[in-house]
Amino acid sequence: MLKLFKEGVVWYRTRKKESYKQILVGCAPGGVVVVWMRGAGQRVEIGRFQARETKIAMSDYVTGNPTAIQKDFFEALAELDPELEEIRKKKGGIEYGLWDSYRKKYSWRTRIEIPKHSFDNTSFQMFNGEMEELFDESLKKNEFKERAVPQLLDFIVADSKGKRTVWEFKYLDEEEIMGLYKQADPKQPIEIILRMNEDLATAV
Predict the structure, then answer these.
(1) What is the pTM for the complete model shown?
(2) By the 8 A CB rule, do 135 and 121 touch?
(3) Percent of all residues in the chain with a pLDDT value above 90, rounded to a whole number
């Protein structure tokens, strides 16, 4: 974290260096805790931690109601969040290992094949919560990098007159994209290519 704070991050809109401005904490079923840092279009995973199960008296957990009963408390929470209750009812219940499967990384990058257009910017959000944006020198290099499977992809392309067009793929079908990455040869890097005709009217 200290290293990232010292390095800072450049914002695409201003091309000026800024500091990371947020420390985010996420919790997943089974006691998984993940920490990220976020700033100017970048979100970087700092670490994955494992909480230990412990028992807490309901009188300490629910302040102001020393007679609270754990069963009643969690039933009330389920009523407030119907989506959670639906997940619990599904076959197999909560998928405790799901989050860690999102953290698996592959070597990949994006690029374009569009006549008379240049690649101005690309950004992606991954299933593991990370975000990355490439432009200027980082996009010129456009190196293959170990990244989690993408959930969202953005391409900004510019024609010879400087007119920019944005292509956004939001949100990719989880089952389909995960399946494609799993089928890929682990020894070969993966390219996600946006192919269009010069008029941008037809994908090729």
Answers:
(1) 0.84
(2) yes
(3) 73
